[in-house]
Design a protein that fits this description.
The protein is an alpha+beta fold and 304 residues long. The chain is built from ten helices and 13 strands. It folds into two domains: 3-189, Prim-pol fold, CATH 3.30.2250; 192-278, no CATH class. Helix content is 39%, strand content 16%. It has a six-stranded antiparallel sheet, sandwiched between helices.
Length: 304
């Protein structure tokens, strides 16, 4: 972390031992833009919400003198210097498993600090990349939200409901010294591969034929375990729909499929299955291997 980020984290650690009426002005005085929210809640108490956030300790002191039990909120993104990944825990499920899989895949465990929320979820704070504003998004299926430019988050020592009308504070549970920004687009693509595939299809659909083929080759070569067969199947369908003969598709995509870990027999069978699906009248390839139906890898996502 840089010196400014370190100072902000230190201020948050000290503030969580203070009463709310003192913590809000203290955080403002230490460079964290804050604004008040409803007691034990997230609804802003000022007219313009996050747009009213301030680092003016005198102004913050007036707010918390008026609302001494108000929760403390902070805008995310470039305004504060922090992007936040919100891992939710609800009756419908938890986002922890998905988040930890994403962190391993994307090598994105360089958060600055993490905060345990009253519901048992976790806020992972990452330093913003200078000059880059990342948009907010929600992945309901994965139980993970991203808070960047235009969003806000509740800070310790604020208090929230944890069920059965009980109250618990937000608490910093761990800090790290070597923090780095997170790529929110890559995180979302990992959590929602079908959405990523649709965006990719729309992008390459506007490219010349050769550029589309090169993009599909690159797509296949980077498919992770669990998406390799499905990725090759989808790319082969796109090649078939574009009118490429099956032999051309095999020549183009086989090296990429080998690069991501598929065997030659798997590759040939998957491409043939794609052509039976997308171009049933297409002639068989010259060099056919033994035929078997395409079976996606466990956990694979596919959208045609």
């Amino acid at each position: 972390m840089n010196r400014t980020t370190n100072a902000k984290v230190d201020a948050l650690i000290r503030a969580q031992r203070m009463p709310l009426r003192k913590a809000g002005p203290y955080l403002a005085a230490n460079g964290l833009p804050v604004f008040p929210c409803a007691e034990t809640g997230k609804k802003p108490l000022t007219a313009h919400g996050l747009l009213d956030a301030t680092v003016d300790a005198t102004k913050a002191e007036r707010w918390w003198n008026r609302w001494p039990a108000a929760n403390i909120a902070m805008p995310t993104g470039p305004t504060s210097g922090f992007d936040v990944v919100d891992v939710d825990v609800r009756e419908s499920g938890s986002g922890y498993e998905s988040f930890h899989r994403a962190v391993r895949r994307l090598d994105a465990d360089d958060w600055a600090f993490r905060v345990l929320t009253p519901s048992g979820g976790m806020h992972f704070y990452y330093p913003c990349e200078p000059g880059r504003a990342q948009a907010n998004w929600v992945s309901a299926k994965a139980h993970i939200d991203f808070r960047g430019a235009g969003g806000y988050i509740i800070l310790p020592p604020s208090v929230g409901l944890c069920g059965h009308d009980l109250h618990q504070p937000y608490v910093i549970v761990e800090t790290q010294s070597n923090a780095n920004p997170i790529d929110s687009a890559a995180l979302r693509d990992f959590l929602e591969p079908e959405l990523a595939q649709r965006r990719f299809a729309a992008k390459i659909g506007r490219q010349p034929t050769q550029a589309r083929t090169e993009a599909l080759k690159a797509w296949v070569s980077t498919r992770p375990e669990g998406e390799r067969n499905a990725g090759l199947f989808w790319a082969s369908c796109k090649m078939a729909e574009a009118g490429h003969p099956i032999d051309t598709t095999l020549d183009a995509l086989t090296p990429s499929a080998q690069n991501c870990g598929l065997l030659d027999l798997e590759i040939a069978a998957t491409v043939r299955s794609a052509y039976r699906h997308a171009a049933p009248e297409a002639p068989a390839p010259v060099n056919q291997g033994p035929s078997r139906p395409f079976v996606p890898e466990r956990g694979a996502a596919m959208a045609l």
